[in-house]
Write a structure and sequence with these properties.
There is one protein chain. It contains twelve helices and 15 strands. By secondary structure, the chain is an alpha+beta fold. The protein folds into three domains: 59 residues, Uridine Diphospho-n-acetylenolpyruvylglucosamine Reductase, domain 2, CATH 3.30.43; 116 residues, 2-Layer Sandwich (Uridine Diphospho-n-acetylenolpyruvylglucosamine Reductase, domain 3), CATH 3.30.465.10; 117 residues, Enolase-like, domain 1 (2-Layer Sandwich), CATH 3.30.390.50.
Length: 302
Amino acid sequence: MLRSLCGVKPAPFDYIAPARLDDALEVLAERRGAARPLAGGQSLVPLLALRMARFDLLVDLGKLTMLSGVTRDGDELVIGAMTTQAQIATDPLVLRHAPLLAAATRHIGHFQIRNRGTIGGSLAHADPTAEYPAVALALDAEVELRSREGGRRLAAGDLVVGPYVAALAPDELLVSVRIPIRPGRRGWAIEEIARRPGDFALVGGTATLALADDDAIADARVVLFGVGTKAIRLPNLEAELTGLRGLPDALGDSCRRAAAELRPPTDAQASGEYRRRVAGPLVARLLARALDRAREPSEADR
């Protein structure tokens, strides 16, 4: 282990970079609560530098190459937790089976951040303004968690407990993300409102629609981020859309009613009222774009 010097901004900490997953899990178990995994470091390192967080030991996961990459396992897309955001944005399997995830990646910071940031790090960080937790919720993803004692799977919607708090035990690692591969006519959209490109979203949202053979909406998912303590689904709006052949003429009114139920935060960037006001029109745009994509002929039809 190496001892960080007090001449740098972070508080002193020990550092280890295991090359085996079992070794990392062993260290987390032995130093339970005093150790913190370090993935891409794009969120944790600034917090350490500002002394907003401090840990006795950082367990760098950078050498765990077995946690990186995208594969298909039956009807699931499996993404290793250490897969970088840049990899996800261009991976052929992601582009084919989870294009919403690839599109969301382009909204994350800047290319330097995406070159280092990882999907596991982003999900475990549980930032309420982040894209990946919202997309994982919209796509019904599950995460695989591992500790020295064994593994478990957890729905993405249950992973985030609150702002920057994930349902991970101190000795657990998020090792992969599993996204269902669903055939059929499906469309998606993502949009966010930010002060500048690369900034955190003031309000963001995703929408997915699945169409039945008769063109009726068989499934609708609408998820907003930046408007609460974590990504938020709009179940009443989803239920209102399900079964319709197309979007209702009064879609704008329905979206505004759904947004009126939100209780977004007020901060130095925007007021809660502003966030609520822009959320309704944003959702309407998302649904229109998702429906257009769902109606596009598939590659097999061309």
